[in-house]
Structure formats: C-alpha cells, structure tokens
Design a protein that fits this description.
Keywords: Membrane, Transmembrane, Transmembrane helix. The chain is mainly α. About 90% of the residues lie in helices and about 0% in strands.
Length: about 70
C-alpha cells in the first residue's frame, strides 16, 4: 500500500526508491541503536521517538510535493 502510494504520488520510480531508501535506513538505525543499547525500555522509547520523527518527515515531504504541484498549476 505504501509502495503504491509512493509510486503514484511521489514522482514515479524515484519516489518509490526514495521511500524504500528511507525505510531501510530507518530500520538499520533502529537495529544499531538496539544493538548498542541493551536496556529494552530505553530502546523502546527511542524506537517510537524515531518512528514519530520518521512519520513526520514523510508527511512533510508529501505535503511539500503536493504544495508545489498545486502552487504551480
């Protein structure tokens, strides 16, 4: 669902690659943080804080794309 959305609304193949790259980097960073931090509770908090910022970043990116599309029409 996310991949189809990104493919159609974020500029075709480049948007799809961008979203896949962000997801891979996000989970890699979370894995490194959980590997370094052995305390599960701290990792849990950091994971959801990163997830929150990641979702905000995706929303702002989509909003920016739509804003420029509607602004220049």
């Amino acid at each position: 669902m996310i991949l189809l959305f990104s493919f159609f609304f974020l500029g075709g193949f480049s948007g799809l690659v961008f979203v896949l790259f962000k997801i891979i980097v996000f989970f890699f960073v979370v894995y490194v943080i959980m590997y370094i931090n052995y305390c599960f509770f701290v990792c849990f908090i950091v994971y959801y804080k990163l997830l929150f910022f990641f979702l905000i970043g995706c929303f702002l990116y989509i909003y920016k794309r739509f804003f420029f599309v509607f602004f220049f029409l």
